[in-house]
């Protein structure tokens, strides 16, 4: 994951949230993202995949400056540029 530092990433977690932002650093137990769109999928009718694809096309719309995500809750992380439009 160190290769992703400084890049925009998609972080999928166990809960119905998806995080999109720039990976700032990796700590022992957390990921730190900056300029983050924290999206609760329960608040929309769209799926996780559709939301992420739309963010790839239209760009990340940050609603948080900094977010700390517990590593034990992360299911996957990938560069936003790797999302297929």
Protein architecture, described:
The chain is mainly beta and 85 residues long. The chain has a single domain (2-80), classed as SH3 type barrels (Roll). 13% of the residues lie in helices and 47% in strands. The chain has 1 helix and 5 strands, in the order βββαββ. It has one helix at 48-58; strands spanning 8-13, 17-26, 30-40, 64-70, 74-79. The chain has a 5-stranded antiparallel beta sheet with strand order 4-3-2-1-5, with helices on one face. β2 (17-26) and β3 form a beta hairpin. The longest helix has 11 residues, at 48-58. The protein starts with 7 loop residues before the first strand and ends in a 6-residue tail after the last strand.
Write the layout of secondary structure elements.
Layout: E1 8-13, E2 17-26, E3 30-40, H1 48-58, E4 64-70, E5 74-79
Antiparallel strand pairs: 1-2, 1-5, 2-3, 3-4
- Unreliable spans: none
How many helices? The count is 1
CATH architecture: Roll
Rg of Cα set: 12 Å
**N-to-C CA distance:** 22 Å
Let me know the number of strands.
Answer: 5
Strand order of the largest sheet: 4-3-2-1-5
Query: Could you give a short account of the major beta sheet?
Result: 5 strands, antiparallel
CATH C-level label: Mainly Beta
Précis, in short:
The protein has 85 residues and is mainly beta. It contains one helix and five strands.
List keywords for this structure.
85 residues, mainly beta, SH3 type barrels, 5 strands, globular
